[in-house]
Amino acid sequence: MIELWSVPTANGQKVHIALEEAGLPYRATMVDLTKGEHRTPEFLALNPFGKTPVMRDPDGPGGRPLVLAETLAIAWYAAEKGANGLTSDDPAIRAEQMMWASAISSSVAMPFAMQFFATQLAPTPDPWLIETMTGGARRSLDVFEARLADRAWVCGEAISVVDCLLFPVVATSAKRLEGWLDAYPSLRRWHDDTASRPAVQRGMAVGTA
């Protein structure tokens, strides 16, 4: 069984959803960041960057154990190992899925992370930084609002790993923005459709009990 070390925040939720949608059994251990559990020698042996989530699959490719860190890498691995079509067999669509997945992990994650730091963690609020990062977060939502205006899912005719990665951004991170999805009707429709899926509900519930 896959072992997962995670936290119930957006990055952890992305992996939880991907594992659930892929239909892979896993055991999740929540890491207490406030106690520095991500800085212990045992954890740093799994991920020297000291970040969650981290996955260990005792039955990796070729039957060999595999340890992976980084949200995108774990989610993509789960999507490929599962048999539920979360990645496409079509090389062009697959490349497009990787492009959107990479964008979520970089172009989207950065302004939302910095907006969180600026509004929640900074010892002295910086109005310029707050305005800049909030604007960047909203612009990233604009991209997906346009993308989802004429399609049910971000890539293809069915849910994919890209949707697994995007959902926690919209459901968790974007709730910090004033009005949440009031200005994004297509994203709101996609959010509600995605939120109704049992696998997504299970993934979002991991670590919250």
In brief:
The chain has 209 residues and is α+β, with helices and mostly antiparallel strands. The protein has helices at 10-22, 41-46, 71-81, 91-121, 127-147, 161-171, 185-195, 198-205; strands at 2-6, 26-30, 54-57, 66-69. Helix content is 54%, strand content 9%.
What best-fitting shape do the alpha-carbon axes yield?
globular
Q: Enumerate how many helices there are, as a single number.
A: 8
Strand runs, count: 4
Radius of gyration: 17 Å
- The low-pLDDT segments are none
- What is the CA-CA span between the terminal residues? 21 Å
**Percent helix range:** 40-55%
Strand order of the largest sheet: 2-1-3-4
Helix/strand-derived category reads alpha+beta
Q: Give the H and E element order.
A: EHEHEEHHHHHH
Beta-strand content:
5-15%
The overall pLDDT, averaged over residues, is: 94
Biggest sheet layout: 4 strands, mixed
Structure description:
The protein has 209 residues and is α+β, with helices and mostly antiparallel strands. The chain is 54% helix and 9% strand. It contains 8 helices and 4 strands, in the order E-H-E-H-E-E-H-H-H-H-H-H. The chain has helices at residues 10-22, 41-46, 71-81, 91-121, 127-147, 161-171, 185-195, 198-205; strands at 2-6, 26-30, 54-57, 66-69. Strands 2-1-3-4 form a 4-stranded mixed β-sheet, with helices on one face. Helix 1 links the parallel strand 1 and strand 2 (26-30). Helix 1 runs antiparallel to helix 6 (161-171), helix 1 packs across helix 8 and helix 6 (161-171) crosses helix 7 (185-195). The longest helix is centred in the middle third of the chain and has 31 residues, at 91-121. It is globular. It starts with a strand and ends with a helix. The model has no long low-confidence stretch (mean pLDDT 94).
